[in-house]
Design a protein that fits this description.
By secondary structure, this protein is mainly alpha-helical. Helix content is about 35%, strand content about 0%. It has a domain at about 20-60: 30s Ribosomal Protein S18, CATH 4.10.640. It is elongated and about 50 Å long. Belongs to the bacterial ribosomal protein bS18 family.
Length: about 70
């Protein structure tokens, strides 16, 4: 018997992926400021593209830092 695991997205239905939603974006970057891959976060490919775009926009506009010092 094959058992498939039902994956749930870490992004809830009411959450909007936007460069202004900094709390959501911080969940998907490392302490060093790198964007986490989707195999670790469990988001869909479409959500990963939206997250990457929003994180990059937030960095340019100054909502997120490019590098995090230790």
């Amino acid at each position: 018997m094959n058992f498939t695991r039902q994956r749930t997205s870490p992004i809830h239905a009411g959450e909007i992926i936007s460069y202004k939603n900094v709390d959501l974006l911080r969940r998907f970057i490392t302490e060093q400021g790198k964007i986490l891959p989707r195999r670790l976060t469990g988001v869909t490919a479409k959500e990963q593209r939206q997250l990457a775009k929003a994180i990059k926009q937030a960095r340019i506009l100054g909502f997120l830092q490019f590098l995090y010092k230790e």
